[in-house]
Amino acid sequence: MAPELLWYIPNTVEPGHRGDTNADGWGSLDYSVDLARQCELHHWSGALLGTGWGRPDTFTVAAALAARTSTFKPLIAVRPGYWSPAQFASAAATLDDLSNGRVLVNIVSGQDAPAAYGDDQVDQPTRYARTREFMRLTRRLWTEESVTFRGEHYRVTDATIAPRPVVAGERLHPTLYFGGASPAAEETAAAEADVQLFWGEPLDGIAERVERLRGLEQRYDRVRPLEFGLRITTVVRETSGQAWRDAEAKVAALARASHATDRHHDQNRGTPAVGQQRLIDLQRRGDVLDTCLYTAPGRVGGGGAGTTWLVGSGDEVVAALRAYQALGITHFVLSDTPYREETARVGDAVAAVMGASVPA
Question: Which pairing describes strands 227-237 and 195-198: parallel, antiparallel, or unpaired?
Answer without folding.
Answer: parallel
